[in-house]
Amino acid sequence: KKFSTGEIINLMSADAQQLMDLTANLNLLWSAPFQILVAVSLLWQELGPAVLAGVAVLVFV
């Protein structure tokens, strides 16, 4: 089957968008747990054990 120029450009732009989304999500895969860990440790310094309530909500939701 032959594709028109417009169809090829449309397919290429869709693939490029999926690649951009993948790179952003892969970045979140490692950075989100790191950010949560840093935030919890900083909150622990300020609030002490009370931060465990927030961690429990985060885990259960």
TrEMBL record:
* Source organism of this protein record: Equus caballus
Q: What keywords are annotated for this sequence in UniProt?
A: ATP-binding, Membrane, Nucleotide-binding, Transmembrane, Transmembrane helix, Transport
What residues does the ABC transmembrane type-1 domain cover?
1-61
PANTHER family, from UniProt? ATP-BINDING CASSETTE SUB-FAMILY C, MULTIDRUG RESISTANCE-ASSOCIATED PROTEIN 1-LIKE
Gene from which the chain derives = Abcc13
Give an example GO molecular function.
ATP binding
Q: Which Pfam families match?
A: ABC_membrane
Q: Which domain of life is it from?
A: Eukaryota
Name assigned to this protein: ATP-binding cassette sub-family C member 13
The record's GO CC annotations read: membrane
